[in-house]
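lol ok so funny story. i was supposed to be doing the assay writeup but got distracted and ended up predicting the structure for this chain instead. priorities right. anyway since i did it might as well share w the group, maybe its usefull for someone
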Amino acid sequence: MTSHAGQKIQQRGLLLQDIIEGLNSAKLIEDYTSPFKGPTILVFMRDTQNLPVHAVWGIPKNSTGPAYLVTAYRPDPLEWRDDHLTRRKP
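and the output, tada:
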């Protein structure tokens, strides 16, 4: 986990343990793979209280792993449809 991610998840009231445990049911939303940063993905998962969480995971450029948590947040219902997988149109 990056220090940025640690700060953000704490500010947002999320627990790292919940995010890690939610990986078993994670669904890919978007792939942000960049030749400059390396593979990065946005996934949807649920925490241990069954609440929705979006998490961004990345693998450093020129590396095969491990993946690190970039950030995590609760999906905003104004930006995401009820399935938490589809962005609302502006």
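The two ends are 31 Å apart (CA to CA). Residues 3-73 form one domain.
back to the writeup now i swear
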